[in-house]
Amino acid sequence: MALEFAILGFLSREAMTGYDLKTRCFDDAAGHLWTADQAQIYRTLEKLSTRGLVRSRLVPQRGRPDRRLYSITERGRTALSAWLREPEPPSQVRDPFLLHLFLSPDLPDDEITSLLSGAREEYQRRLEHLRGPAREELDKWARQTGRIRDAELRRMTLSAGAAAARSAIDWVDDCIDRVRSGLPAPDPGGVSRVPTRG
Amino acid sequence: MALEFAILGFLSREAMTGYDLKTRCFDDAAGHLWTADQAQIYRTLEKLSTRGLVRSRLVPQRGRPDRRLYSITERGRTALSAWLREPEPPSQVRDPFLLHLFLSPDLPDDEITSLLSGAREEYQRRLEHLRGPAREELDKWARQTGRIRDAELRRMTLSAGAAAARSAIDWVDDCIDRVRSGLPAPDPGGVSRVPTRG
DNA sequence: AACGAGTATAGGACAAGTCCTATAAAAAAC
DNA sequence: GTTTTTTATAGGACTTGTCCTATACTCGTT
Prior knowledge:
2 copies of one chain form a homodimer. By secondary structure, chain A is mostly helical. Chain A has 2 domains: 2-85, Orthogonal Bundle (Arc Repressor Mutant, subunit A), CATH 1.10.10; 96-180. In chain A, 63% of the residues lie in helices and 6% in strands. Chain A is built from 7 helices and 2 strands. Chain A has helices at 2-11, 18-29, 38-50, 74-85, 96-102, 109-145, 148-180, and strands at 54-59, 67-72. In chain A, helix 2 (18-29) packs across helix 3. Chain A is elongated and about 65 Å long. Chains A and B meet through helix 1, helix 4, helix 5, helix 6 and helix 7 of A and helix 1, helix 4, helix 5, helix 6 and helix 7 of B. Chain B binds a DNA duplex through helix 2 and helix 3.
């Protein structure tokens, strides 16, 4: 569902190939909020094409495979517009890291701490990427294309990611403190009869 | 992957039926960080059973279907323990709401605002649930089971959700301000030639 | 000269997740 | 007194997403 409209959204600005969508759109512009597998992009383009929401023409090339250039149709614009007007409630949380932590009471304190520190590093990396390279690339794109309203909304999504990362870092720090200041002893009946590491 | 270990984790505390896992574990205890479809739980239990990580026995009942009570095996405990020791980096973000916002520059300001307010309400609901009912249920569970270390880690995951929701609310408020204080005019070449609503 | 990276598309296999349906009886709600 | 909910399991169909492979030529690097 979402991928279809993401593709329609990108094509509403510019005709593109599957490859462009993958590299410029999903990897670069929107990578911080939605990733897409290459194979899935091509298959979705095909599906959109049979439904008449996009259309494609072959652009011959020498020395490399012909480009299949996709553009949005009027029906595609209508479908996109209708979808955009539907409210989109924040999606359910489904977080493998939190699940891992949730299931970890049988690990010793130091392993829980290292679990948390690892996450902290990742959140930190993410935050720096969003505030640095990602932000600069977006500003550059805005200058080049002049799409300042597009850019403003994109900036909002960057700041959402940054806010989430910042708050996650604070949360991790708080958790590490709580572990250091003494977690309750292991509950009975856990998984820990399995021999410990080493 | 994750679901398998979530199930093993729950069964490491107590033998349960698929129904118990669905209602008590995934809906109630872990619903804020991982949901699971009923059909998927039963199928995963079957898979775990053929791999020898869980085992089941039928507990006959009168008047209602027999319960198939699953318990974790030693091999299951070993597998769980090994998985818990593997680091789990925070997962990639994939956020349909942010995608929607990202794709919305052709909507008029007031529709973007209502998009944001809708999200704010949902985050608010989530925050109140985590601080209120979810927290109370967890404390009750902790008192009843005496699993105070388990409970402490579970509390951490609740506070992660609460922190995320709080920061999302702040972010939304900031976005609404930015829209009110004047977003740049629509960029040319958008989707908006489609007749507006009404 | 060989090797990897970039440009470009596409199929196969599979895992994960969602939705719907069927069955069945007790208990609670209306 | 009828309807809905709760308890309990399980299959079918489907969508979404991931990973791997194949093809094919160019350009830059070692």
